[in-house]
Amino acid sequence: MPAAPFDYHAPATLADALALLGRLGDDAKVLAGGQSLVPLLTLRLVRPAAVVDIHGLDELRGVRRDGATLEIGALVRHRALEQGEGALASCPLLPEAAALIGNVRVRTMGTIGGSLAHADPAAELPAVVRVLDGVLIARGPEGERAIPASEFFTGLLSTSLRPGELLAAVRLPLPAGRAGYAVEEFTRRAGDFAVVAALAAVELDGAGRTARVRVAIAGAGPVPVRLAAIERALTGIEPAEPAVRAVVRDLRLEVEPDDDVHASADYRRHLTRVLTVRAVVRAAARAPEGAGAWPS
Fold first, then answer.
1. Distance in angstroms (rounded) separating the CA atoms of residues 231 and 200
2. 254-296 pLDDT, tens digit each
3. Which domains does the chain have, with CATH numbers?
């Protein structure tokens, strides 16, 4: 089925794109890598009056490290995240998460900004920015806004981006000291969206006990969520599997899964606990010895 008719725009600069989006507002959809929008257009699930193709905006392809922060332009592709070269090597969670996205064609075309703005609750990259306490940079008619990841995802396929705004970049705090990261997910087939995914970031103290634990869950509700009660309860323990499992087993989960054709809500809650234990234990095991930061 062909897409419904729309006006096509390919601005040459970021300023031109922002001017277009400011004028078109809710009548426009932004096209980046096309891995989410093109299927929606083809199935006529969305029928915008205009499509603004930002593929040519090299201003949004940059990656730079500024001290303890990594800034990634919205048009950086999943494949670049997976390969983790240059400054991207300073964030070891990105290659692991990006390698789980779709297939090599999807990773070659898809962009980090497209994934985050699409806000599929089962996607890996929204959960990455949640577990790392990332900040999303929006540009629009009123200038630049820095939106914490905890406020960016507002519901199923919805974000706090305003009409006329464009997601320009994401900023991620970099690991320091004894920090380890892991992704654990359950899928029906390789490359599918996760039924549930658990992402963990674990910092250890000098004695090998947990100084800070962060866990984000994808696929168990309308947005990626942090397991705050489990994070608190896991802090200060030796992160061996029996100890982690004992903590996670009975605590309240901040997830709101629904029944669907892939899994029941109860099964998703079960997966959340199982995958959280695996992710936390593996992340802790990856924390380097000593107090040195990850290599640049």
1. 10
2. 999 999 988 999 999 999 999 999 999 999 999 986 433 343 3
3. 60-173 (3.30.465.10), 178-286 (3.30.390.50)
